[in-house]
Amino acid sequence: MSDYPPEQDIDHFKIWKVKDQTLKTEKKVKLSDQLNEENGGLAASVKAMQWLANPVKKEVKSIKKKDKPKKDKPHKVEIKQEKVHLTGWKLHFEQTPKPPKGRWQIKNQFTEGKDGWEEWKIGEPEFLLVPAAKNDDPNKLPDQKDKTDAQKKIDHYLCYKVDEPELETDMELQDQFDKKIDQQHTEPIKRLYPKYLGVPAHKDDPAPLLHQTAHLAIYELDPPERFLTSVATIDQFLDVKNLGVSESLYLAVPSQKRPLP
């Protein structure tokens, strides 16, 4: 397993709750990734857009795991590709998927263990993250070129449920919505709760993945930031004007994954 840091390839993302939960489609997809490919992939329907993800700047000062001492871990990450976004779609599967076989370890800035690897129990898949483009003018759809560029720079991610212990953190986030509040505004985060693991996935296409080792560990934010704004988005499923978002939900962190040795 290479120790090449995945954040060299993809950004961190702050995931926001989509206010209008009626944005639906009935597109059928076949999804295959490293956790389910031996079963021929998963057949699913893309149901409802519930998330919008912006690339985010992150600055961490310290973290503390439960029953462990606080660690000063200064770490700052800038945005590399400000026009690459993700939409998050709730999935409905033709057959109820089972959690993947085997035991798995995750590694990122927040994980601890031997050489930084930490075991996570991975559950069943629930969401699909899709490359997208965004325009801050809610009445004007983004250029198709921006959507195509996003598809060339980031993979789809099949998001599996996880439920791991929380960690305390002294961290600040800033994305494009924070700058709408004020150019200097940042969102302070005190706790993170691991909720999903995003695994790079093939969607209806066996073409090679862009970054097959770059996963997304998705942490629930505490406290969330409530901010109402509207944008326009396009992805391969839906073009949407006046898309409202209401609050920050998660931080998606570039991560590595490997079978438990």
Core attributes:
261 residues; mainly beta; 15-stranded antiparallel beta sheet; 2 helices; 15 strands; 6% helix; 56% strand
Account of the 3D structure:
The protein has 261 residues and is mostly beta strands. It has one domain (6-259). The chain has helices at 144-153, 176-181, and strands spanning 13-18, 24-33, 42-55, 57-65, 71-77, 85-93, 104-107, 118-120, 122-135, 156-162, 167-174, 187-203, 215-222, 226-234, 239-259. The chain has a 15-stranded antiparallel beta sheet that branches. The model has no long low-confidence stretch (mean pLDDT 94).
Residues in β-strands, percent: over 45%
What is the helical fraction, as a range of percent? under 10%
Number of E-state strands = 15
What gross morphology would you assign? globular
Q: What is the residue-mean pLDDT, rounded to a whole number?
A: 94
